[in-house]
C-alpha cells in the first residue's frame, strides 16, 4: 500500500466493484484505478486503501476473499448464494453515502 496523497488531477480511469459473502452478509468494495496507475480500494468502513498499482490492489482483495462482481457468473452466484438479478453494487453521489450500503445483511441466508 502507498501513502501517496490523492489529487484532483488524478481521476479514476476504471472503477470495479468487488464482493465477498460471509454467511448472511454481503460485503462490497470498490476498486478505482487512477490515471497515474495508482489503485484505491474504498472498503466497507469508508476507508480508502491506496496501492502502487492495480495488480497489488486486486491481490489484496482476492486475499480478503473478494471477487470481482463483473466476473461473477451464474455458477459463482449459486456457490455464493447471490441472486445476480437482485444484486447490484451500491450507488450514491458521495462516498460517505455509500458506507451504509457497503455491508448488506441478507434475509433468508445462513
List strands and helices in order, with pairings.
Elements: E1 12-22, E2 25-34, E3 39-42, E4 48-51, H1 54-63, E5 67-68, H2 74-80, H3 95-98, E6 103-105
Antiparallel strand pairs: 1-2, 1-5, 2-3, 2-6, 3-4
Q: Roughly what is the average pLDDT, rounded to an integer?
A: 90
Number of helices: 3
Shape: globular
Indicate the proportion of strand residues.
Answer: 25-35%
Distance between the first and last residues' Cα: 34 Å
The SSE string, one letter per element, is: EEEEHEHHE
**What about the largest sheet?**
6 strands, antiparallel
Radius of gyration over all CA atoms, rounded: 14 Å
Number of strands: 6
Total domain count: 1
Percent of residues in helices comes to 10-25%
Structural class estimated from helices and strands: alpha+beta
**Which spans of ≥5 residues are poorly predicted at pLDDT below 50?**
none
Amino acid at each position: 500500500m502507498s501513502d501517496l496523497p490523492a489529487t484532483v488531477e488524478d481521476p479514476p480511469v476504471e472503477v470495479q466493484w468487488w464482493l465477498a459473502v460471509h454467511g448472511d452478509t454481503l460485503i462490497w468494495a470498490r476498486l478505482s484505478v487512477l490515471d497515474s496507475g495508482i489503485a484505491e480500494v474504498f472498503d466497507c468502513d469508508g476507508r480508502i486503501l491506496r496501492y502502487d498499482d492495480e495488480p497489488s490492489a486486486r491481490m489484496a482483495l482476492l486475499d480478503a476473499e473478494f471477487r470481482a462482481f463483473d466476473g461473477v457468473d451464474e455458477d459463482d452466484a449459486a456457490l455464493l448464494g447471490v441472486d445476480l438479478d437482485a444484486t447490484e453494487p451500491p450507488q450514491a453521489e458521495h462516498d460517505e453515502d455509500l458506507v451504509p450500503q457497503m455491508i448488506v445483511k441478507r434475509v433468508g441466508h445462513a
